[in-house]
């Protein structure tokens, strides 16, 4: 019998396979790919499900099919209403969803990783920023450059930022300002 300590664990196999796949995979496809990376036994399917259960970024997309959060986010747009405090300090306060959008790996072990993300402000500068804690809330410290961009675009508190995920793996995001009077409230509710 082969010494399994020389092979990657099921957890590592599933994380690598899903993390490198641009598309969601069925459990059967995961099992087949795991079999190419390590010896398996009768419990391979159960071991794959256990690994999936331990991976924050393994997201169910259909029955028995899972995608990797960073891959699933690509091209998605999220709305963030600006508040007065954010416009005073230049920090974008993130709720849990936004934190997962910008820092998806954080939730695996709940440890800050020092990741820098690139934020492309529409019609403005591109900034490299990291997560910080502001008033006991995770935030992006965007600073004076961000405030100048909001001012230049005519933004104010209660306008929305539309955050587009360009490439979550690489940490690339686009942000544009949507004035509150331009919001389509019915579409937002839907």
List keywords for this structure.
alpha+beta, five-stranded mixed sheet
How is this structure best summarized?
This protein is α+β, with helices and mostly antiparallel strands and 190 residues long. It is built from 9 helices and 11 strands.
Question: What's the SSE pattern?
Answer: HEHHEEHEHEHHEEEEHEEH
Kindly name the structural category: alpha+beta
Segments where pLDDT lies below 50 for 5+ residues?
none
Beta percentage is 25-35%
Mean pLDDT: 90
Taking all Cα atoms into account, the compactness measure Rg is: 20 Å
Number of helices: 9
Q: Roughly what percent helix?
A: 25-40%
State the distance separating the first and last CA atoms: 57 Å
Total count of strands: 11
Q: How would you summarize the topology of this molecule?
A:
Elements: H1 10-20, E1 25-26, H2 27-35, H3 44-54, E2 58-62, E3 65-68, H4 69-73, E4 77-81, H5 84-89, E5 91-93, H6 96-102, H7 106-109, E6 117-121, E7 126-129, E8 131-134, E9 137-141, H8 143-152, E10 160-167, E11 172-178, H9 185-189
Helix pairs in contact: 1-3, 2-3
């Amino acid at each position: 019998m082969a010494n399994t300590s020389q092979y990657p664990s099921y957890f590592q196999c599933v994380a690598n396979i899903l993390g490198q796949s641009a598309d969601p995979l069925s459990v059967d496809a995961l099992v087949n790919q795991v079999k190419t990376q390590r010896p398996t036994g009768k419990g391979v399917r159960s071991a794959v499900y256990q690994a999936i259960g331990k991976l924050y970024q393994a997201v169910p997309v259909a029955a028995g099919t899972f995608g990797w959060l960073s891959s699933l986010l690509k091209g998605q747009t999220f709305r963030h209403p600006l508040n007065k405090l954010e416009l005073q300090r230049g920090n974008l306060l993130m709720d849990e969803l936004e934190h997962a959008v910008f820092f998806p790996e954080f939730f695996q072990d709940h440890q800050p990783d020092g990741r820098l993300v690139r934020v492309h402000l529409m019609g403005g500068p591109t900034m490299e920023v990291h997560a910080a804690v502001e008033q006991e809330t995770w935030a992006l410290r965007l600073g004076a450059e961000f405030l100048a961009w909001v001012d230049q675009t005519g933004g104010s508190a209660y306008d929305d930022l539309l955050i587009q995920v360009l490439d979550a793996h690489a940490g690339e995001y686009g942000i544009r300002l949507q004035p509150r009077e331009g919001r389509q409230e019915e579409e937002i509710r839907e």
